[in-house]
Input
Amino acid sequence: MKSQIPDETKTCDVYCNGKFIGTHEKPKELIEELKKLRSQNIISPEVCIAYDKKGKVHIVSDAGRLLRPLIKIKNGQPMLTEEHLEKIKKGEMTWAEIVSRGLIEYMDAAEEENTLVALNETELTNQHTHMEINPFVIFGICANVVPFLNHNMATRVTLGANMSKQGIGMYCSNYGIRADTQRHLLTYAQKPIVKTKGLDMVNYDKRPSGQNFVVAVIAHGGYNMQDALVINKASLERGLGRSVFFRSYKAEERKYPGGQVDLIEVPDKEVRGYRSEECYRYLGDDGIIEPESIVGEDDILIGKTSPPRFLEVIEEFGMSVKHRRESSVNVRTGEGGIIEKVLLSESLDGDKLVKVKMRDPRIPTVGDKFASRHGQKGVIGFIVPQEDAPFTESGIVPDLMLNPHAIPSRMTVGQLLETIGGKVGAMSGRMIDGTAFSGEPEADMRKELEAHGFKSNGKEVIYDGITGERLEAEIFIGVVYYQKLKHMVVDKIRARSRGPVQILTRQPTAGKAREGGLRLGEMEKDCLVGHGAALLLKERLLDESDKTTVPICTQCGLVAVYDKFRDYSYCTICGENVDITFVEMSYAFKLLLDEMKSLCIYPKLLLGEKGGL
Output
């Protein structure tokens, strides 16, 4: 962007960190002088001097601004020369020295408005004020995970960058001795064949989070409709996309006022809240589960008893067993696995602390989510046996089949380039550079592909795995780095017939952890209305939710009282000698009536026969 600093002299306001500090008659000279002092290191290089559209000079030095380095340009030439670069290579010059000499300037968003930045040296003109150190530095760490990102639509790059955070990989090397609350680990993580300079800078190869899949862009029997993926069963059996889920549980022997303590033990049958014997079957004599036990949901991992919440009369010899309550740690609903490790320690207060680490091997199944680095995400729609999958002339069966319709509208040309690059890298046995703006040229990769005996466009003759016939169209096939994301169907699936309800509304609880129901919302209700499924609608919204029978006084129209023990009803206002009718309604509606009464509003119910008053 061209500089907005005016040539003519006119008085302007000067602000420091948003606070008005005075006016100046020559703003251009003021800005030049301040920048000169900054380049001489008299003012900190992190201070921003900007001129806005309203004609105000802003000097900003507050914390939390995003700064990025740019090479300073003077008379169309970079101030950072080859001599400086040689000195840096030899170790004679440091980054701090370059910045202090003013060869490189830190820019924030406000000051960048007054600059004209060149992408590289070939673009330089006398109007340019700064130049990028390298074009890929424009993007952050996550965006630089995406290869050939300058060929993709911006929204897809954003999605790809966001999903790289969710990819399962080797998150650390000491995972065996850590007790993270929950963590996923990819069993056979691979380095990407197509990589970027940004990945090398963050040592991504040491902690990768994906695998190189052989991907064919082909529809397969409708099972990869929309964004769904078809995966080769034999590939999964060889370990493709296999991961392990770890979860840690902990319990502590807390001390309470009055000398009461928690105890980690196998709970006695007389303890209040004792569960069935089967729940405690894996516990050792110390009340802690044995390693390598295979557990399922609701199995007890750490047996624990606690004193009563409200202290009762303490007997002569202290609190008896029957007064204690059960507070064991059990496996979460819908989870299970193998006990990996049991750790005994002490908390900060010196209390006994037990941590149990559980592992759950996860083999990809229908519904598990995968994504390439270009924002092409999808769930497995079908796991095809290898003998039924399509294959190439050389006998290669793809690991994954991607729907062709996922490419044109998303405009992820970067993925097509990665497919060719991955194929070249696999055949040549080398890594391919896919850095934004400076990666390997497409023409070079195509030539190399031809040299290996393939077509330059990446397409191959494919045979149908079921009939053995050659397909009419040639299919685009190559190697793409895919990530398994942490969204797995095992963690999401839930069902409920009966279960807990909320105390206030008597409707089913929400959330998987609380054995909650699935909400039938407004739009789902509209679907049932559109189908004319009135009884199904009533069943979902009333019978299976918060149906209740309420006594209503026919005289005053208010909720009456039903005495269960004496089996008779009366109205608190009209007395006993009135007709009381029992009405089916939603408990949430009854709650609304009660809340209206609390606001001194008289919600009178007019009763009549079904079919109208």
User: Anything to note?
Assistant: The first strand starts at residue 12 and ends at 16.
